[in-house]
Amino acid sequence: MFLITISLLAFFSGALGEAEDIDESADLGFGLPEEIMSTATTSIPSTRTDPIPIAKKRYCGLFSNKSCVKRSDCSTTVRSGSKLTVDLRVKSTNGCHYLEVCCHPDDMLSPMNGTIPLGFKQCGIGNAGGIFMNLLGGRLETSLAEYPYMVAILDTGQRFLCNGVLIGYKVVLTTATCLAPEQSLVVRAGDWDLASDREFVPHVDLNVQYRIVHQQFNWDSTKHNIALLILTEEFPRVQHIIPICLDHKGVDLEYESCFVTGWNYRLMNRLRPTRNIVLRLDMDVEENMFSNTSTSPVLSAVPRAEQPMYAKGAPLVCPTESSRYYVVGAWSTSLNGAIQFTDIRKFKEWIYQEVLPYNIVI
């Protein structure tokens, strides 16, 4: 009877481990259903939010003499040059998470501190190909910290609410339709997979101290659909947390290369999502939208990927020839297959005016 019980436990443990590695990259639902929003500027008490704790130690291997550890903490991890290799197509057969390996105690390394400080403020700098790892087998998934300006807007229960973009080390840009009235909010920067805390660099959570919604925002028409979140303090200046550039006066942008970045939001609750990685969706923007004579506060674009998506609050980004990134829009609504973005270029003066009382320079 004792042997049968052990066998059953091993079977269910393996089944749960394999379930963690189901490929859900085709699930492209973003954002949240729209909620009624207050347009008043609101002050919210704030405290720093601790990261989600890592799960308890799990044993693996034929004789359970190994344990699941971060890939960066084991000498047997497959590498490509100086980077670790993560293949999303490979399903676990030992119960370890896809960012872990089954490692013998003799092969374990000291935990890696992957945080790389930056000595100065900068904006719009990406990490081509990501940092510390090569990602294989993805469809729209980006690599670790490839777009370090992305932030997730959470409630105090760590539930993902919306996408946002860091435009300064203490201020986040999003859309007004992302924000419910009087709801305490947390902004997370430096994350990559929202369903995991096993990345090689730590994310940072800061509470929102003030929210600023455009004074003329109208829920029915979604006009002036823009909002700012002022944080309790600045995010650290590190390689995996870098604001995007805002003012592109005199800068030549490659409008044919614009794209959206953001996280999935699953509308149906699941036992445990396998992964929720930052995606990149290339967009075709109507040429006349970027004309100097255009007075419309809205940009219209069509995703090149023929798949449904919902990315409320996500930034529309256009690069320069040297791959410096500028935010030009924020996901507002979708209409007849086209995505409507709030044209951030039309609201730059409003942004500068609203952050001035907080001594924030963008």
From TrEMBL:
The gene is Dyak\GE21177. This is Peptidase S1 domain-containing protein. One of its GO terms (molecular function) is serine-type endopeptidase activity. Residues 135-356 form the Peptidase S1 domain. It holds the Pfam family Trypsin. Gene3D superfamilies: Trypsin-like serine proteases. SUPFAM superfamilies: Trypsin-like serine proteases. Residues 1-17 form the signal peptide. Belongs to the peptidase S1 family. CLIP subfamily. Keywords: Disulfide bond, Hydrolase, Signal. PANTHER family: TRYPTASE-RELATED. One of its GO terms (biological process) is proteolysis. InterPro entries: Peptidase_S1_PA, Peptidase_S1_PA_chymotrypsin, Ser/Thr_Proteases_Immune/Dev, Trypsin_dom.
